[in-house]
Amino acid sequence: MACGLVNAQTWVDHSFWRPAALWAGIAGALSAGATLEGIDWRVLALALILVDVLWGSVWRLAGGRAHLLPLSPRTLRQQVWLPYLQPGSPAARVFANDHQDLWPLVFRAGIPAILLALLVAAVLGVDALALTLIAVAITLLGWTARHTLQDVPVLLGSLMSIGLPWLLIMQQLAPTAEASVWGVSGVLVAMWVLHHWGEMRILADPHDAIAMLLLASGELAICALLILAQAPLWLAGVVLLLLPTWLAIVQGRPVGRRMQPLWLLAMLLSAMALSQVL
After folding, report:
1. Fewest C-beta atoms under 10 Å: which of 39, 185, 189, 194?
2. Model pTM greater than 0.85?
3. Higher pLDDT, 137 or 66
């Protein structure tokens, strides 16, 4: 059933209305002050595909086989010839405890995902290519952590979901922005990465004290930033969106995924606020 050299499937993972790379990219466009008349829609569309679809495909590699679509048994049985990986070689003994389908997965899923992301990034420019290489490095770090620590650090996922996509879209739409704009936007991006880190932790464990600390730190810093930017109306909207999370925590109710649309709206609203006051 394959008619292409590189095959892919597309699906919506979990809720569409949750903080993720696509929305972080849109937040980056809002914080850059992009207007409907001034946006290069082709560049924006390609950049959003890169940060959401292609970087997402790369990041899934860190989760291993459990997060990849299974290859056919025939593909997994095919041997991949590499020097120094023949049976009995030192490198082969290093991977002796791994499953025998490692290298087919690397060559059939990993390398195509990375090369396609690098190709699209090269079309967008050197900065996009550099950020894509950082995304690949973060993925390799996550894969290594999963094998050594038995888990992928949530912070790495937050960087892939919020931090890098926001920065790339902003760079594409406002490459000549002043240093002060980048500084303030960088602080906002960092705080939402921190907040997303807390979001993922508290969804996994409603009683996680570290998650509450991350959420509180990020939200207080975001509010302080909007106060310094003299945006009281925007601040009120952001606070109203973030308040239900703390009401649930105080009342002892679990912070469920129903809070994710509120976090998403708060993120977009804060990004829009900066574009209006800077």
Report:
1. 39
2. yes
3. 137
